[in-house]
From TrEMBL:
Domain of life: Bacteria
GO cellular component: cell outer membrane
Residue intervals of the TonB-dependent receptor plug domain: 59-153
Pfam families, per the entry: Plug
InterPro entries on file: Beta-barrel_TonB_sf, Plug_dom, Plug_dom_sf
Protein's UniProt name: TonB-dependent receptor
Organism from which the protein derives: Chryseobacterium flavum
Keywords tagged on the record: Cell outer membrane, Membrane, Receptor
Record localization: Cell outer membrane
Amino acid sequence: MKINKLSIAVLFLSGSVYYAQETKQDTISKEKKIEGVVIQGSSNKKTETAVLGEQKKAIIQKQAVSAEEISRKGISNVEQGLTKVTGITTVEGRGLFVRGLEERYNYLLINGLGSPSNNPFQKIIALKQFPTDVVGKLNIYKTFNSNLYGDFAGATFDIETLTIDKPFTKVEFGIGINTVSTFKDGFKVSEGADGFNGYLGLNSRDKKLPSAVRNARPSNYRFSANESLTQFKDSWNVDNVKSVPNTSIGFTTVQKMKAGENGNLGFLFSLNQSSEYSYKEGAKNQFKDFGGIINLNNDLLRKQYNYQIESSALLGLGYKNRGTTVNLNAMYLQNVNNIIEDYYGYKNNQIQNKDTGFFRTNQQDLSRFLNIQLTASQKLGERHQIKAGGSYVINNYQQPDRKILEGSRLDSNGNLLPDNQLLLAYGGNNIIRQYLDVNSRFYGSAYGEYSVFLGEKGDKKDFPMQLSIGYNGFADLRKTSYRFLFGKPNGTAGQSFIIDKDNPQSQFNQDLSNNRFFFQEETDASNFFTSMYQFVNAGYINFNYKPSETWDILIGGRYENDMTLIRYSEQGAAKKTNLDKERNLFLPSLSIKKALNTKNNLRFSFSKTVTRPVLIETMEISYINPDNETIKGNPDIKLSDNYNFDLKWEYFPTNKEMFAVNLFAKRINNAIERSFVSSGDANGVTVTFYNAKKADLAGIELEGIISLGRLSESLDKFTLGANATFMYTDVERSEDQLKLEQPNPNFYNGELRKRGLQGASPYTINADLKYEVKTKNNLSRTLSLVYNVSGSKIYAVGTSGSDNFYEKPFHQLDFVYQEQITKNWNIKLGVRNILNNKYRILLGDKSYYNVQTNGINTYTDYFRGVNFNMTVGYTF
């Protein structure tokens, strides 16, 4: 079955995966009795206590969010769960930031196997699409070990799927309202998007590139009237609806049975689907240099309507028999986001249109992701173990038939039209259809590892030495197609007419029939198609040595071969350019843990790693937005080389409490940064990407989990968890950046100021206060208050005499109540974003040129609204 025929379906097999990232043995004989307690807790990996115990014992610095914590905090997806970890925060539409570093510095594993992104604008899967019902634990590695992929600077996330421990069947229903978006009259959605086909994502079939040009190179093809009427299946009309509450439904069943005398067979099946209406209103401006003066090039009010449906289907099978474990894993994720954006104001410095300009974008973002995994491990006696796994992934991303409509809110006599009407003329850029496809030709990931335990146990439980030799790697082959079709006048240029902007299709059909206008493709035949081939193959060796009961040393080396080929064409070029990049990398790692006593650990780690760019950052593509802001990849972008240092002290007063202080530093050579530059066509600006020469980072992480019963017996039901990261960064610009950022000496003669790393936040703070009590039926009741904020960071580096653009702090406060009402029924109530801060990106106040914008320094801003959610679950 082709991937584009799938809607909700497919498989997800789940099971416990063992791999070399973890070293779980403890060497302290004095902790033998305490170890007994930890072992009992660890038999259920879902508990917060078990996760904390594992963090204490591991040789590498690893943090985790347990299934218990996921449930307690009302976490519905993986992205929310990871933001509860020290130094991690989520940023609007751009994924997770770790230690203030952009998402490009992170990497994702699913059960130890590499996973590609299903979105060219993000480094990893949008983890909010990943439901937590089937998650056993979220692991976060903030220090590198040689059997992790070398693409590491912020963190590697590993999603462990639900361990099949005991049978259960669970059904959940959720409903939520938003103070800004829910029950809003006149909520705009594409025609039919909120119907059954839209709910399943099947309406994308009507948005395909027309058959007349689908399988042909662009050739300025002109559509006949009949072709224009029959081959474009999707309508320009927009429905005005009343946005209903957001909903979710989930079904999960886990079954376990005997298989032979000593074997167990586990089965998991899960279906999840959710729908959400969201509305945002605020500025979307643009700043540009006009001869030594920074002016507003765009002054726009944007109204954005999102109707989003997320679906997943999971099916699982796992077999375990003494030393043998086999798991077949597969998962399918689908995200359909229907977006209407209305812009009011002027662009391209056309100030005369400030109160009359209008344009609309009507688009659908569609991603489909299928991941099938097979993993196995086999113990050979007491000393030997073999592990292996492989995955096959199909991931497709589309923006099919992205429609752009532009006109005036004034009639031909200069009078303001009613809000539902628009003065339109065929020609120019007033009617555009865009088709973006980023499709996977193939993605495969694999690993294999052999481990041998050396030395004699003696009185200790564990062998003193472990040697592991392994391989992991991936192949990622993708192709990108980007095409444009324009509405062109048929001898009627300049003739204007009034349309109903929400229902223009009937007028368009009539004018097509009367040959008043036609559609024609105007895609450049040389650069509509690009492709990327990437092969990463790595061998590694790890040696774990415990010379005494208090020392644990892990030394590793990784050799990684990275071969990347990018094929693209310059505009108008007759032949494609083959950009061949190959690097051979040696990536050492060292981790040392010293147990000062049974409650205190001291850790040190060093490693060298690399950072690979996000797909859009390296692909030769110019992604055009209707406000003339273009996102352009840079195929000459280089990998970053990272040198990482960590020194950490941990204190575990009890098995439920901990305190930690971590000092860290990084040198990032060729750090990748986002920049604003003036567009080559003199209109608008371009977002593009450059390497800095180097960036230096230094910071401290503080973390604590404490029972407030220490302060007073009356507070013994309260637990306070808090963590904070404070960081300093400094960038040395590359030659390319110096040319872009250096002001014209005719307008400014000073030196460039020092600045920090783009995307790096000076601080990140997370905190949660938990109240937990047992009811009279010995069932759990939990209340949690969760807070998160990160400091002002550079969203994009400014050029042409302007300051940088800064993403301002966003304070988020959430409240979650959960209670197990009976043995079968449970309820969750949540209030998210209680403070309802305004999200803002601002132009800094230290531009090199004069700024004449009437005090406006906002690039974009909006309110998210407060979310109220209720989920009711029944477990059989």
